[in-house]
Amino acid sequence: MERNYELGIAFANKKDQQDELYSVRENFYIKEDEIYMDGNSLGLASKPAEKELLNMMEEWKEKAIGLWDGYFHFGLELGALMAPLVNAGENEIVVTGSTTSNIHSAISTFYHPTKERYKILVDDINFPTDRYAVDSQVRLKGYEPEDAVKVVKSRDGRYINEDDVIEAMTDDVCVILLPTVLYRSAQIVDMKKITKAAHEKGIYIGWDLCHAIGAVQFDFQDVDPDFAIWCTYKYLNGGPGAVAGLYINKKHFDKLPGIAGWWGNRDDTQFALKHAFEHQKDASGWQVGSLSMFSMAPLKGSLELYHQVGMEKIREKSLDLTAYLMFLIDERLAKYGFSVGNPREDDKRGGHVCLEHDEAYRICQSLRQNGVVPDFREPNVIRLAPIAFYTSFAEVHKVVDIIEDIYVTKKYEEFSKTRGLVV
Fold first, then answer.
1. 128 labeled part of a ligand binding site
2. How is 207-272 classified by DSSP, letter by letter?
3. Is 277 marked within a binding site?
4. Is 391 assigned to a binding site?
5. Could you name the CATH architecture of 50-308?
6. According to the UniProt entry, which residues carry N6-(pyridoxal phosphate)lysine (predicted)?
């Protein structure tokens, strides 16, 4: 899509005046002296989320154990609220566990290696927790990762080449796990192309949507993945460590969950307390333990905003914000050695911009001291995530002002090159 941008704060202010989503900012707790550009790591607190959390506290105070009468299926109900974000069936998503525990749950369900088919196919630039879980699962089956985990190497350390993935789908591969949006480069991988190729070869395929859900539109009815996992504390603003999402394609509801627990048992026999597991044949059958109510309640409030606004408008503004940021980088920062390290095309980039520079780490530290919250990723990336719900065009413009000032005045030289614990 062709967009025409102009330099100067007046243009940014004009964009904000024309933005029909600008008023949504009022739902979030935004600090007056801070520009938050890290919503792809942890979304901001919202008033609807706070309301639902406090409401859950009142429910506990007033009803005690009677609370369960209204929230027994809360995980599936939240999944139904989330389903429109990926165009999935209402009973194909459950809010449960964490990203990593859900990877274990899904892989253990679909990974049943044989002598002929025993490998799991992954890439080498995904967020590492996915690989840790996959390696653990193959070890549990008696294999070593060096033998049973097949790694598709990125050609440049930034992007995944879809054709390379398809070429690696040999007869010994039985499961694939890949990211939809790469955390470092913001590349959107062609899910439909790869999923279609995997199914043609009889391979189960799952997708990690952690850096995509809530920022990018998906159509699971069309893509038809076997499973997917994601966190809810980034773009979905569910709160720190919020309970994660798990998608199981309805065609697999008859499969026995690889990791079973009593909350995944059939409703009608759950409190019969039998020692033989009878799993509920929808996504809720993959739940393990009792619901983490206080970590789930804020997500309900956040999802209300998604329903009010709609993913189409959210994605449209996200693309506009990131395109504007890239324009300013090209026009104002490129001369100082800064560059854009993510795809430019709308259909190939997620919700954040990867600003690359040799001094990225120290500039990132200086940004924090100067009222901007970004994050850093090795080896030279400052990730900037202007969020459709609460970032203005004027703030994007000011961030570039601050970056230019930090570089020209060499403020970044005040900081050590030694990496901190959380970067």
1. yes
2. EE-TTTBTTB---HHHH--SEEEE-SSSTT---TT---EEEE-GGGTTSPPSS--GGGB-GGGGGG
3. no
4. no
5. 3-Layer(aba) Sandwich (3.40)
6. 234
